[in-house]
Amino acid sequence: MAIHAVIDFETTGLSPALGARPTEVAIVIIDGGVIVDRFQSLMNPGVAIPRDIQALTGITNEMVREAPTVEAVMRDALRFVGTHPMVAHNAAFDSKFWDAELRRIHGRRKQEFACSMLLARRLFPEAPNHKLATLVRTLGLPATGRFHRALADAEATAHLLQHIQQELQRRFRLSAVSHELLLALQAANRAQLDACIRRYRGGEKRST
Prior knowledge:
9 helices; alpha/beta; about 15% strand; Ribonucl_H; globular; about 50% helix; nucleotidyltransferase; DNA binding; Nucleotidyltransferase, domain 5
C-alpha cells in the first residue's frame, strides 16, 4: 500500500472564498494500513468562530485566542505532509482550505487529493449516507473520538481508507492499491468500476 497523508480541517465556515479560515488541522500518515505519525494543532483564524460552528466542533473563540497563527501552523503542516499523496473525506472541502492557506504562505500543492467519500459512494452504495460518522458506524470501523474534531476525523478517515483499500483488493483480487487507482476510481461511476480496474491492470502489465 502507498503511504498517504490523511488530512482534516475544522473551519469557521464553508468556503475560504467567503472569508472562512481554519481553526484546527490534523494530518495522519498511514503506511501499510497503519497510522505511523500524527500532526495536530489548533490555530488562530483571525476571525470570530460563529456560535453554530462552536457548537458543532466544540472549538471556541477562547480556545484559539492564544493558538499559533494559521500561517505558522500551515508551514509546519506543509513540511509534515511533504510529497505524500493526500486523502480527505469530502476532499473538495479540505482541498479548498489547503490550497487557499498555502497561497497565503506562497506555497503550492503538488499532489492530488483522493476522496474517501467519493470512493465510499462507489464501493458502498447501500450505506444510509456517506457522512464519515455514518460510514464508521455502518462499516464497523474503530471509534476515534468526537466527530468534527480534526484528529478524530483524520484518524477515522485513515481507517476508512484502509477499509476501502482492503475491499478493493478483495473484490477485484488486487495485490495492491495505488493512489493513482484511487484517483481513477473516484472519477468513475459505479458502472465503470470494472472497466477502470481492467485499465489499471493493463497499465501495470505494460509497466513491468
